[in-house]
Structure formats: C-alpha cells, structure tokens
C-alpha cells in the first residue's frame, strides 16, 4: 500500500532544501545592495537555473519509475513527479519571487 505521508515528507524536505538555497542567495545580495528588488532579480536568475535543472532530473527519474510494473510504485512515482513539477514551476518560479518582492524589507527582519 502506498503511504502518502512518505511522499509528502519527501516533497516537503526537497522543497525546503531548494528554498533555503534560493533565499540564502537573495539574503546575500540584499546585504550587499540593501535593495530587495536587486536581491530577487539576479539571484532568481542564477539559482533558478540550478534548481530547475535539479527538479527536472528528479522529475524525469520519477517519471521513469512510473513505468514500473508495480502499481504502488507507479502511484508513488507519479505523485512525486507531479509534486516536483508543481513545486519547481509554480511555487519557486512564480509565487516565491512575487511574495519576496511584495514584502520588501519585511523579508529580512530577522538577523
């Protein structure tokens, strides 16, 4: 039987790993320039390619696993592939840069 909590845990961990990487680069640029807009645009351009390539590799790996003869493996692999694709395209490429830009200096209130 497929345990969805394992898939959700894996996707959450992967998502947070990529997010910390992107936001750490944004914070470095913000510390250097003092501008949130100047922090978001170049850092998404630099880290976005790396994260998108990593997500694409994982997506293709899970897509190939979806051709396995076992139904449970097919279900888990399809769910993980869909989750990675959604996270890499919608969340990381659209929502996160938009929210960081909208919040401005409020993003960086912690030390």
How is the secondary structure organized here?
Layout lengths: L3 H30 L2 H30 L5 H33 L8
Helix pairs in contact: 1-2, 1-3, 2-3
Number of domains: 1
Note the run of SSEs as H and E. HHH
- Percent range for helical residues? over 70%
Terminal CA distance: 45 Å
The number of E-state strands comes to: 0
Structural summary, described in words:
By secondary structure, the chain is mainly alpha-helical. The protein has one domain (4-103). Helices cover 84% and strands 0% of the residues. It has 3 helices and no strands. The protein has helices spanning 4-33, 36-65, 71-103. α2 (36-65) runs antiparallel to α3. It starts with a helix and ends in an 8-residue tail after the last helix.
Task: List the keywords.
mainly alpha, 111 residues, 0% strand
What is the gist of this entry?
This protein is mostly helical. The protein is 84% helix and 0% strand. The chain has one domain (4-103).
């Amino acid at each position: 039987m497929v345990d969805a909590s394992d898939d959700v845990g894996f996707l959450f961990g992967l998502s947070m790993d990529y997010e910390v990487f992107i936001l750490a680069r944004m914070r470095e640029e913000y510390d250097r320039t003092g501008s949130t807009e100047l922090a978001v645009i170049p850092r998404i351009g630099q880290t976005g390619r790396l994260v998108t390539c990593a997500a694409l590799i994982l997506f293709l790996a899970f897509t190939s696993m979806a051709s396995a003869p076992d139904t449970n493996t097919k279900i888990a692999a399809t769910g993980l592939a869909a989750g990675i694709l959604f996270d890499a395209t919608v969340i990381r490429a659209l929502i996160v840069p938009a929210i960081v830009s909208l919040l401005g200096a409020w993003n960086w209130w912690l030390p």
